Amino acid sequence: MGTLHTxxxxxxxxxxxxxxxxxxxLAWWQERKSVELMLWSSAFFTGAFGxxxxxxxxxxxxFVTISLGNALAVLALAMIWLxxxxxxxxxxxxxxxxxxxxxxxxxTYFSDHFRESVTSRIVLYSVLIFVYSxxxxxxxxxxxxxxxxxxxxxxxxxxxxxxVFYLVRIPLVLxxxxxxxxxxxxxxxxxxxxxxxxxxxxxxAGGFVFFALVKERTQHRYKLASETDALTxxxxxxxxxxxxxxxxxxxKGGALLYMDIDHFKAINDRFGHAAGDQVLMDFAEIAARxxxxxxxxxxMGGEEFAACLPAADHTEAIAVAERIRSDFETRRLGTAKxxxxxxxxxxxxxxxxxxxxxxxxxxxxxxxxxxKSAGRNTxxxxxxxGVPQFAxxxxxxxxxxxxxxxxxxxxxxxxxxxxxxxMT
Length: 424
Prior knowledge:
The chain is of the alpha+beta class. It has helices at 6-30, 35-55, 63-87, 94-110, 112-116, 118-142, 144-147, 151-175, 190-226, 237-248, 264-271, 273-290, 314-330, 357-373, 412-423, and strands at residues 254-261, 296-301, 304-310, 333-335, 338-340, 344-351, 378-382, 388-393. It is elongated, with a radius of gyration of 32 Å.
C-alpha cells in the first residue's frame, strides 16, 4: 500500500480550490474594478473543474478527461499569472496565457504518441507547469511595486518551488513510470504521491498568500493616503517630518527650503478657490521636478511647502531655490476671470546632521519671514551668524541685491503667526 492516498489528496486539492474561488469571488463582488480578484477567483474555479475531469478519467485516453482536464489545470495557472500582472497594473498577455493550454490540447489530441504514452504526457504537462510557475515568480522580481509587499516574495517562493517540483518530475517519470489509472487509487511510485501532495500544499499556500498580498496592498494604500497631500500629490507635513528626522540622523547634512506662495489669499478671493488649487498643484509640480534625486518636497499646510535637500551645501540649495522661484514666477494659469500669476518667497537653512528638526525648521522659517518682510518673491537664507540675509530673487525695486538685511531672528511661532495675520 502506498504511503499517501492519491485520490484523497486530489479531493482535498479540489475542495481547497473551491473554497478560495468562493472567497476571491466574494472579494471581487465587493470591489468590481479589481480585475486581479476576478481572474484569481476564476483561476481557482477553473482548476477545481479541471480536477473533476481528471478524477473521471479511465485507463485509456479520453479527450474530455485527459486533454481538456489538464488544459484547464494549465489555464488556471496561466490565469494566476494574468491576475498578478493586473495586480501590478501591467497589460494582460492573454495570448501567452492561452498558448500553453492550446499547445497541450493540440499535441495530446492530434499526436498518436502522446495519446498512447502517459509518460510523454507527463513530461509535456510538467514543462508547461514549470513555464507558467516561472512566469509568476519572475513577475515578482520584475516589478518595483511588489518589493514594497513582503508577501510577494512568498508568492515567488511558492510558485518557483512548484515549478521546480514539476521540472524534477520529468527524470523521475522516465526512471519510474506510472502504472495503471492514477485517479482510481492504483499504487504508484512514491515520488508521484509526494508530488501530488505538493500540489495540495501549493493550492493551499497559493490561496492564502494571495489574500496576504491583497491585504498588504490595501494597508500600503492607506498608509500612502495618510502620508500624501490629496490635492498636490506630494507628501504631507506628517510624512515630511518623519523623513526629515531620518535625514538629520545621518552625518551628511543638507539644506531645508521653506516656501510660501505670496498673496495666496488674494488669488483665492479674486479668481476663486479652483484657481487657487491649481496654483498649489502647479507649484508642487515645479518644486518636485526641480529638486535633485533623493530630495523630499512636501506641503506643510495651506500655501506653505518645504523641501529637504540631503547633502546639499548652501550654494547648491540657493541655486535650487532660485530655479523654483523663477520657474514659478513665469508660470501662467488662464481662468474665466483672467490670467493668474503668482510668486513664492523662500527661506533657506542648512544643517550638518546634528541639529533637531525643530531648530532647522525655525531657522528656515525665520529666513522665510525675512523674505516676506522684504517684499516677497525673494530667497533669504541664514548664514553662520544666524542672521537672515538676501540670497537671490527680485528685491524691492525689482533689481537683484546681495545686501544683507540686519533682521533679528524670530521664533517659529512668531514668524508663522505674522504670516497668518496678513503677510501672506
